[in-house]
Amino acid sequence: MSDTTIPLTQRPAWKALQKHYAEIGKTHLRDLFESDPTRGTRMSAEVDGIFLDFSKNRANDETLKLLIQLAKESGLRARAEAMFSGEKINITENRAVLHVALRAPKEEQIFVDGEDVVPEVHKVLDKMAAFSDRVRSGEWKGYTGKRIKNVINVGIGGSDLGPVMAYEALKHYSQRDLTFRFVSNVDGTDFAEAVIDLEADETLFLVASKTFTTLETMTNAHSARDWFLKSGADEAAIAKHFVAISTNEKEVAKFGIDTANMFGFWDWVGGRYSMDSAIGLSTMIAIGPDNFHAMLDGFHAMDVHYRTTPLEQNLPALMGLLTIWYTEFFDAQTVAVLPYEQYLKRFPAYLQQLTMESNGKHVTLEGETVDYQTGPIYWGEPGTNGQHSFYQLIHQGTRLIPCDFIGFCKGLNPLGRHHDMLMANVFAQGEALAFGKTAEQVRAEGTPEWLVPHKVFEGNRPSNTILVEELTPKALGQLIALYEHSVFTQGVIWDIDSFDQWGVELGKVLAQRIIPELEDKSGELKHDSSTNNLIIRYRNGR
Ligand code: G6Q
Fold first, then answer.
1. Is the backbone of residue 212 left (phi > 0), alpha (psi -120 to 50) or beta?
2. Atom 11, ligand 1: which residue's CA is nearest?
3. For a disulfide at 155, which of 13, 160, 241, 296, Cβ 3.0-4.6 Å?
4. Would you say 294 and 279 are in contact if contact means Cβ atoms under 8 Å apart?
5. Could you read off the pLDDT of 287-306 as tens digits, one per residue?
6. Where is 217: in which H helix or E strand?
7. Which of 504, 505, 509 to mutate to test the pocket of ligand 1 (most atoms within 8 A of CB)?
8. Three-state secondary-structure class, residue 423
9. Cβ(501) to ligand 1 under 6 A?
10. pLDDT tens, position by position, 230-264
């Protein structure tokens, strides 16, 4: 069925989708719902408490059939199997892509270069658990004998966004006598504000960096070290206040961190897929090893679902394919992720990296420039705040913005009518976007004629609604894996390498050239006239 040598836009399913779009692209959701009273219940799928209502999409059964055919013609299943079995599918870096191994149960075997990686994964998890327990219980003491009260994760990108998001998402389950902060930006303000009210002898730094060479992280880690030593501590005390999370033992030792206090991971874990590796140490200290394992179980449950469930009922595949549908055929440029859960306030930012770093590519695996769009822009804010700002454009603007609403049946902080009010808003927004408000309805409200066009909502704006029972560690794992595999699905259809990030690598080297030019005022500048001029102004103004 699959012949991936045929370019995407030449595949039979793609051509059929083009024709199909011409037929149904303008059909209104009002008509789709009217002609099928079962649509709202039929077009949904559920796995282990994660319910996806995809009925408010501009798609019918034929659309889904063709999208699934496209997935088959694109060899989705085979590529997923290649990932799950440790093949080096990140071809530009010649690496396996095995975040799924990070949550594999002990009894599973996954081989990379002939070696089963699962025992190593569990060895690190056990080491993390022992360490977390010691910090949480107060057994791990700082150099003056006081217990640790503050945990600061120093990292950036994949070594920051996941930990921050997970800490915020699972704060409800966190140990409240510990303070958690996250320093990522090389802007000195980030570090200065993070430590402003902290005592060094009660503070533990987790230096999280896969490579242990990232400019921002190393700069912040050195500033942390200086701040710590300035408090009166001597070098020997560093071992009690600095641990490293890295794949680079040599650099960790060079920095002065005892490698006994190093938590390892592997080159087959991409930065943006690493929050359930040792990079999640701050999460584990916050919520405890049992909750961390529950989160891993959630990830794993979604992995199994993605790997084994027919595409028709496969949540990540459906979400990924619908994104392809809008991106390619409706020319949609963005996807809004709108969690109606305050604890998920950093979830859209986390997803931005996951989705855009993975699928922001312009060449195929074979190096050919694509003749279609790839990764859309993901963005969003928690509801209901967004409703009072940018939803206006989603409702009445000229662009099509598919939305993912995420809501929970139970709130974690029961407070009067708050949760019902919150959830009423999710349901109302999805409904209003889909069905809109016609001129007749607006007139019937007694609106003067001149005002009618302004108050009309054309509707037909698509959304998914993900409804989950409660935000638990397990549910968070399921949600993240849902998006990870949706991104994977999209990347396979687009025939791109979703696991490299050459754009990020470029950023890592570019600034290095300019730093000395800022520090030495007399050096000759050889940039373009704009850059030269900006540097001169900065030199004079600093
Ligand atoms: C993620 C990217 C990138 C990376 C950071 C931090 O997939 O590769 O965001 O996580 O640049 O890298 P280090 O962990 O090596 O410091």
1. left
2. 157
3. 160
4. no
5. 999 999 999 999 999 999 99
6. helix 215-230
7. 504
8. helix
9. yes
10. 999 999 999 999 999 999 999 999 999 999 999 99
